[in-house]
UniProtKB/TrEMBL annotation:
This is Reverse transcriptase domain-containing protein. Pfam families: RVT_1. It comes from the Eukaryota. It comes from Meganyctiphanes norvegica. Residues 1-140 form the Reverse transcriptase domain. InterPro entries: DNA/RNA_pol_sf, RT_dom.
Amino acid sequence: MISFLDRYEIISNTQFGFRKNMGTETALLNYIEFLKSELTNYKYIISVFLDLSKAFDVIDHKILKMKLEYYGFRGKFLEFLMSFIKDRKYFVHINGINSDTKSVNIGVPQGSTLGPLLFLIYINDMIYCSNLFFSNTICR
């Protein structure tokens, strides 16, 4: 899956999380270079920072499936990916006692290899919302 995403350059080059040889430091260096360039040219800068804590917990499966299809995932592999995230169940075990089993109908599994990749695909189109928009304008 990673090689497919890389080969077809599906994940934006402005996405630094969960990527090989990229991370917070790379994002910060790119941001500083952007600021220096814009300020040198006397441009205005507005920055918005989002806290995406618990982001893996709120991924809508239907939207994720549409995005996977859009990026070219089809057939058995798409079925596998969806079976990995759908109809998951959990229970809590404390002092030898198990809670009732509950279903999870949203989100992607944390601690898995696929979770971060699915999250990147889910938020990949956020970069199209990076320009200044007026209140009556929506992002693509």
